[in-house]
Amino acid sequence: MEPVWLYDTTLRDGTQGENINFTAEEKIKIAKRLDGIGIHYIEGGWPGSNPRDKRFFELARETSFENARITAFGSTCKPGVRPAEDPNLTALLESQTQAIAIFGKSWDLHVEKVMEISLEENLSMIRESVAFLAGHRKEVIYDAEHFFDGYKANREYTLNTVSAAVGGGASMVVLCDTNGGTLPFEIEPIITDVRKTLANHFNRQITIGIHAHDDCGLGVANSIAAVRAGAGMVHGTINGYGERCGNADLTAIIPVLCLKMGCPCMSREHLKMIRKTSRYVSEIANMTPLNSRPFVGKSAFAHKGGIHVSAIMKTPAAYEHIDPEMVGNTRRVLVSDLSGKSNVEYKAGEMGIDLEVNGFSSSKIVSEIKRLEQEGYQFDVADGSFKILMEKFTDQFKPKFELESFRVTIEKDKNRHCRSHATIKISVDGREEITAAEGRGPVSALDNALRKALDNFFPNLDAMGLVDFKVRVMDGEKGTSAKVRVLIESRDFDHIWTTVGVSEDIIEASWQALADSFQFKLANMNHGG
């Protein structure tokens, strides 16, 4: 299969997603990461629309990129305005990028009902805008907005719009499913028709691209269908971020192309970096990673059923469609009340724990896990606590610190918000430490006090942070006396781990999860984690 150009629009189309916003400096960091995995084109933004994107292109000119072409995005000239006098096109040239992408209208409905101009004037705007940019020795990528809807409504006119772009000097024509309503079995024949029509008209093959949205949950499927039909460029965003339901997700498209279709769009070494790239972008976007995201999600290669685990211990291909390491992911075996001995034995080997030491067996541990899960614990989502639990079961746990006591107070008066204070006393190798701290809530105060105390014994804890805190009431009928489960997710630069606590007292449950989180981190620090 012919190579496919990868075009990332996370920094432009991705930022149109709800609650996603990047500064110009954050955009540069993401662009460098995308360049590092071999993305061919990185769309940085619309320099004619806002100061932030203009600033990004200023920074990009001072930044070295090894693989990617930084691309500026904009629209055709406005009706009644010559390209040379259009401020949008001028801003695109001032961005000084090698490549420029502009969009124009392909659907006669938009031309006549929204823009309220003639069909012929729209064709002139497309042709003249592309020619103006190409005349400045720019690689021009033309985005045919609403192409598939337009094709279904008026095939002849829609084909005329892309012919106008190619006639003006566009190097590639990208067909956009802007509303995300096209189906995969519609994509292939339309792209085949466009390629044939353009080839006959210009006596050469024109590179066709696909820009899909996910409103029907088919962004990735439509992109793959387009490549099957001969598309040579695929647009998408990391993690599928984008307006409404998002854009086609490059973290799924790229592995499918490389590993399933034999399409050499990224090297195997770069492909191994795609999960870290997904995590990196989600971190900067301040978006919780989706565990079920294909290929790169935490649960993408997670196994819970005992029969499944028994099988993958013999041959992973029994329940995995690829080797997780190909995309930088890892196999995870979950432990719960559905687990059998295979799950526990696999997890023990993974964590370097000898189950047979001190007379314990995997059967006894399975029974104990099932008993604890009856009480409300949930170990399939709390690997950190599970490791500590197994070490305790087999008398191998060596705590990095011991709690002597803590006190939490909450103060509230009519004129001020609640203020939380925590005092904690811990011991490390027989040495006691007492500290106090404030926080935005009782758990935050405890976290701050524990960090302050541990800092005297274990430096470099600043890299660790709590990123998620969940409370679940186990039996709502008991009201405020019900047992609660607390899950805390923590992360450092390289790892994410979850710990769990259960108690009738929410502070006690929070402390259990918090303490386990720090115990897990400190143990891994001693092993280079």
SSE layout:
Layout: E1 5-8, H1 24-36, E2 41-45, H2 51-61, E3 69-75, H3 87-94, E4 99-105, H4 108-114, H5 119-134, E5 139-145, H6 147-153, H7 155-168, E6 172-177, H8 184-202, E7 207-212, H9 219-228, E8 233-236, H10 250-260, H11 268-271, H12 274-285, E9 302-303, H13 306-314, E10 332-333, H14 341-351, H15 362-375, H16 383-393, E11 402-411, E12 419-428, E13 431-439, H17 442-454, E14 465-473, E15 484-491, E16 496-503, H18 506-525
Parallel strand pairs: 1-2, 1-8, 2-3, 3-4, 4-5, 5-6, 6-7, 7-8, 9-10
Antiparallel strand pairs: 11-12, 12-13, 14-15, 15-16
Distance between the termini: 41 Å
Helix content: 25-40%
Poorly predicted regions are: none
Gyration radius, to the nearest Å?
28 Å
How much strand? 15-25%
Structural category is: alpha/beta
CATH superfamily of the largest domain: Aldolase class I
Alpha plus pi helix count: 18
Supply the CATH architecture of the largest domain: Alpha-Beta Barrel
Q: Strand order of the main beta sheet, please? A: 1-2-3-4-5-6-7-8
Mean pLDDT, to the nearest integer, reads 89
The global form is: elongated
Annotation, overall tally of beta strands: 16
> Could you please say which CATH topology of the largest domain applies here?
TIM Barrel
Overall tally of structural domains: 3
